[in-house]
Amino acid sequence: MTRAPAAAAKSIKSAAENNMHVKIELKTTKRGEFIDVTSSVQKEVTKSAIDNGLCIVFVPHTTAGVTINENADPDVVKDILMMLDRQIPAADHAYKHSEGNSAAHIKASLMGSSVSVIVEKGKLQLGTWQGIYFCEFDGPRHREFWVTIIHS
Amino acid sequence: MTRAPAAAAKSIKSAAENNMHVKIELKTTKRGEFIDVTSSVQKEVTKSAIDNGLCIVFVPHTTAGVTINENADPDVVKDILMMLDRQIPAADHAYKHSEGNSAAHIKASLMGSSVSVIVEKGKLQLGTWQGIYFCEFDGPRHREFWVTIIHS
Amino acid sequence: MTRAPAAAAKSIKSAAENNMHVKIELKTTKRGEFIDVTSSVQKEVTKSAIDNGLCIVFVPHTTAGVTINENADPDVVKDILMMLDRQIPAADHAYKHSEGNSAAHIKASLMGSSVSVIVEKGKLQLGTWQGIYFCEFDGPRHREFWVTIIHS
Q: With pLDDT > 90 as the criterion, what percentage of chain B qualifies?
């Protein structure tokens, strides 16, 4: 687990200056890693000034995903990565995709491309031990994730 | 599969009395089990008096998840649990998380922390055989899930 | 990967003529296949005339799912199907569900029953290589998926 350094997270307003849809860049440093982006997402929720609604965190890549899991012990997300690696081998004679990163595509679909989190009184409603993780499966790369907040 | 007894489901209005975001408690009785919460969720949709929109069922735990699958034959969810157990071993020398429940964390991310269901005319729009299941992977425990309805 | 033929996609307005919730039929032709439905979904977004919001694609079946993954090289989704087949065997002595399609139910929950995609200026906001795939795991069958758009 790596916390996204503040300097690596850069918000880009969409062309329409719609403050409910922002793109946040991040740089991953390993082939596979889970990066806790909870505080970056909360920052966008705060900036949006939307009190109640739904926050969608969307990953626009096909070899990365997003999931919610424990943010207390960093070994938890390491164990998730380890078991995904064991179950979905990086190299396999049966893979047809020529880029050699089929495992990363499969893991991305297993984790999913978005998570939905309720917003109440301007705060992401997460359980005590929950954090939002950007899941890199084919890094290191320059990546981004998108945060959208729908007013309820 | 266990149907949540009516007595175990207790709605708690949020402090703001926002009737679109409620917390429902449930008690799980096994290490791993899928509990059909569809009728509890429908009850909240009905109480909300929101005719059309989107219902989000969110699980605020990191060793439990939520999924939609068959509600006709209880053997289906038993088979899902069995295969997850076989693929993600409970004990493994490579797990680093000291609490010994890494498998439950991994299964939680595989199932996901929320499901989204369309609401039309005050009814959850589910397929004929679909039910919403709270997925316990590290019970028995006192748990909760959150129901939020966004007006469309 | 098979692109849904235009003729197979038929929109059905809901009884209330709510143009934000439509059902699209499709016919699958194999036991397991991923069908790119992105253009069918975009067509519904365009018809809805909703500029900004959230699009939910929901699959009302329990042996089919939906996921977002690469739409450039058709081998990517073939590799996902292949690895799911290998990890979740079609036949296993431990399956209890008598219909013999437990593997399809398990894969459906692994992929998930819905995806959420942001809509901006009337366009689905997807990454460069992302497509939305209907995931058939127990075909061939007549199937449907539902598209709902929530205004933000």
A: 84
